[in-house]
Amino acid sequence: MATPLAFTAHSTHSTAAVRAALADEQYWKDRIEAVGGPDARIESINISGDDVRVDMIQAIPASELPAQVTAVRPGDLVIPRTETWNGSGGTVEAHVDGVPATVNGTLTMKESGTGSDFTVDAVIEVKIPLFGKKIEAAIQGHLTELLEREAEFTDNWLRSH
After folding, report:
1. pTM for this one?
2. Distance CA 122, CA 70 (A)
């Protein structure tokens, strides 16, 4: 059984401003450095107009995982992640190296009265009997925190650029 991930953040900036950041290679490099976590890195960035695809690697340190998770999968959880954008919508895909775990979802951005709203609607699925839900919950918690940090970073980055 999969675990849903529903996240919404408000930006003080318009969707046009946020889309412009998403189409700026330096934004992605700055974001992964600032909030990507230990050993985070960009694998590739492809930008063509409103079409953006970013492949990155992120990790959840073993020290931040529940004991039940590290008993099944020792060490950090290394998570390759791909974001694709086309205008104000996109997708996110991720998996956990060495674990039958995936995250798949949609990304949307829309104008709101005082800026824009960014929404992630995803599903986390870990196919490990007995421990799958624990790992899903750990991934959900870390992804929610990461998405909050990324949204805050984006607002601050736009303010300074």
Report:
1. 0.91
2. 24
- Please report, in tens digits, the pLDDT of each residue of the chain (161 residues total): 799 999 999 999 999 999 999 999 999 999 999 998 888 999 999 999 889 999 999 988 888 877 877 877 788 888 999 999 998 899 999 998 888 989 999 999 999 988 999 999 999 999 988 878 888 888 898 899 999 999 999 999 999 99
Bridge partner list, 77? 60
Q: Which two tokens stand for residue 48?
A: 């063509």
Class of domain 3-160: alpha beta
Phi then psi dihedrals of residue 128, to 5 deg: -130, 115
CA dist., res. 65 & res. 47, Å (int): 34
Burial of 135 (0-12, 13-18, 19+ CB in 10 A): buried
Cα–Cα distance measured from residue 161 to residue 158, given in angstroms and rounded to the nearest whole number: 5
Order of strands across the sheet that contains 3-11? 3-11, 115-126, 101-112, 89-95, 77-86, 51-60, 41-48
Answer yes or no: are the C-beta atoms of 118 and 151 closer than 8 Å: yes
